[in-house]
Amino acid sequence: MSIPVREWAHSVIIRGAGRAFSAGYDITPRDRTVEEPEPDASGYKPAYRRGTSFDDDAWRMEESQRLRMVIFDMHKPVIAQIHGYCLAGGTDIALLCDMIVSTDDCIIGFPPARSMGALPNNMWLYNVGPQWAKRLLLSGDTVTGSDAAKIGLVLKAVPADKLELEVEGIADRFAMIDTELLTANKRILNVGLELMGARTLQRLAAENDARAHLAPSVREFSQRAREDGLKAALNWRDGKFGDGMARVEGAEVRDEEGRLI
User: Fold this and answer.
1) Beta partners for 150?
2) Which helix (H) or strand (E) holds 82?
3) pLDDT tens digits, residue range 215-247?
4) pLDDT at 94 over 70
5) In whole angstroms, what is the distance from residue 247 CA to residue 135 CA?
6) What pTM, to 2 d.p., does this model score?
7) Rounded to an integer, what distance in angstroms lies between the CA atom of residue 116 and that of residue 10?
């Protein structure tokens, strides 16, 4: 007799294959005159956004957000296991998980805030508070996993060779708990976040991102990407920020190239 998934699955682990958790959405330039591409056999579409008006853009951002919110609403604890890079859209996924465990040297941030819009969903505020959320999101700067742990952006950071063992250890602890109790305890904590406005903020963030897409710098980035290529556009966006890193403890002293000393 088969056992229903809800009876034996105690938690979910989300991790990336290869050298990074996620470097973000596919922002490869595309010709807007061409019909929207159909998804391939896996359901993948090569562009994350294709709105031709504010309303259409907002609708598409909200549609994507509804899919991501499944992580938040799932009746199982969800752990994000991140390594390498967790940038842009990667943080949209990771921060909807119930907890994040990273490597010490993982790079975490939302560089697209420099020229491509606002965060389409935003749990940063609830993890790090308003000051660090503003410090990172108004600049697009990134932090290492070890610094992220200091401000609560991740649960903890560990050496790369201990990452999987650490995450599996947490999942093993959950596996000793009745699944219905796991559901009840996750739910009440999430209700607490909702009472602090978390769900409403996610809804507003999607529409706010569509509004931010109207900024002149967004059009300039897109034009540069189409004419000069994505690499050149990213260099235009990020080059002036040096290494693009923020430091949690101590002064941010930088060399002539903008790199932290």
Assistant:
1) none
2) strand 78-82
3) 999 999 999 999 999 999 999 999 999 999 999
4) yes
5) 10
6) 0.88
7) 38
Q: Look up residue 26 and give its two tokens.
A: 């596919």
Dump pLDDT digits (tens) for 155-189.
999 999 999 999 999 999 999 999 999 999 999 99
Say if CB 105 and CB 159 are below 8 A apart: no
User: Which among 35, 47, 37 is positioned nearest to 89, based on CA atoms?
Assistant: 47
Q: How many CB atoms lie under 10 A from the CB of residue 254?
A: 14
Average pLDDT of the chain to the nearest whole number = 90
Report the alpha-carbon distance of residue 168 to residue 176 in Å, rounded: 13
> Which residue's structure tokens are 């963030």?
205
C-alpha distances out from residue 183 to 7, 175, 192, 193, 240, Å? 11, 12, 14, 15, 46
- Give 123-156 pLDDT, tens digit per residue: 999 999 999 999 999 999 999 999 999 999 999 9
* Domain 5-241 architecture: Alpha-Beta Complex (3.90)
Reading phi first (left if > 0) and then psi (alpha if -120 to 50, else beta), residue 229 is in left
Residue with tokens 């308003």: 130
Q: How far apart are CA 194 and CA 185, in angstroms?
A: 14
By residue count, the chain amounts to: 261
Structural domain boundaries in the chain: 5-241
Spatial separation of the C-alpha atoms in residues 92 and 110, rounded to whole Å? 9
